[in-house]
Write a structure and sequence with these properties.
Number of strands: 8
Strand content: 15-25%
Helix content: 40-55%
Shape: elongated
Number of helices: 7
């Protein structure tokens, strides 16, 4: 009943941590004589057995049992716990494989952002929610300026580095979780790779002014950091600056997903026509 919750142990720390690093069953008959024992909060504990949760040599965790009796665990208990930990390892491995598959299904392989299909799924649901509750919803579209010149000059591998770095900037400057499968709420931004050098961000609970502020912050970050971070060097040793044109559109009742996307896309073209590297809010 006095078990302490959320006890964090580092690899090698305590009996559990030692089991993790040695990847073998450890059976301690008297924890008071073990100098590495760290209390779990069970005051009456006297003995402990720990078994690694291994799948094909990869450690997923440690299964630990304590007893109030000294020398409580014998060879049969070791075999039983080893069998149980092996079964747990299979279950954990399968759960991780499912999570990885689910994440890959909605994620762009190059950038780690959401993919085109997932973007459309979330846009439909977020627009429905916005229409139902009257909450603001904005869309920010980004089109990198003259990206073909980057590919032609530095090659497609370097171009891919630019896209990954832009995606990193998008993540840093929007309200996003790293794990796509954990996105269950509506108060975070959904950032996706929309096309070759296009990105798009759904911003729930955000009006035009808020979306424009975020877009401008991201625009400045891309201009200041992407070319330098990727190592794009011009003819005279200067950094080749990467920029993007931004279009912001706000959802209104009666406007469908394609209509909202078109508004953002039109705003991007206005930004291009006005000289690139700027944010335009669709009227």
């Amino acid at each position: 009943d006095s078990m302490q919750e959320k006890l964090h142990l580092k690899i090698g720390q305590g009996i559990t941590g030692r089991c993790a690093i040695e990847k073998r069953v450890i059976n301690v008959g008297d924890i008071r004589s073990d100098p590495g024992y760290i209390t779990s909060g069970v005051e009456c504990a006297r003995s402990e057995i720990a078994a690694p949760i291994l799948f094909e040599g990869e450690l997923h965790g440690v299964l630990t049992i304590e007893s109030s009796s000294p020398d409580a665990f014998d060879d049969d208990d070791v075999r039983l716990l080893s069998t149980l930990s092996a079964q747990v390892a299979v279950g954990v491995h399968q759960a991780q494989m499912f999570a990885d598959a689910e994440r890959m299904a909605v994620t762009d392989a190059l950038t780690g952002l959401y993919n085109y299909r997932y973007f459309h799924e979330r846009l439909h649901s977020e627009m429905a929610r916005s229409a139902r509750y009257g909450h603001p919803l904005s869309l920010v579209m980004i089109d990198l300026d003259q990206f073909k010149l980057v590919n032609d000059r530095y090659g497609h591998l370097k171009g891919d580095d630019v896209l990954r770095e832009v995606a990193h900037m998008v993540k840093r400057n929007t309200r996003c979780y790293d794990e796509s499968v954990t996105v269950k709420h509506t108060d975070i931004d959904i950032a996706s790779r929309y096309g070759g050098e296009e990105f798009i961000v759904i911003m729930p609970e955000t009006d035009a002014q808020g979306a424009a502020v975020t877009a401008e912050r991201l625009r400045a970050a891309i201009e200041a950091g992407v070319g330098q971070n990727v190592g794009l060097v011009g003819d005279h040793g200067q950094t080749w600056t990467v920029t993007g044109s931004f279009g912001v559109a706000v959802f209104e009742k009666g406007l469908g997903p394609e209509g909202l996307i078109k508004r953002a896309d039109d705003a991007v073209y206005q930004a291009k026509d006005a000289g690139r590297n700027r944010v335009v809010v669709a009227q």
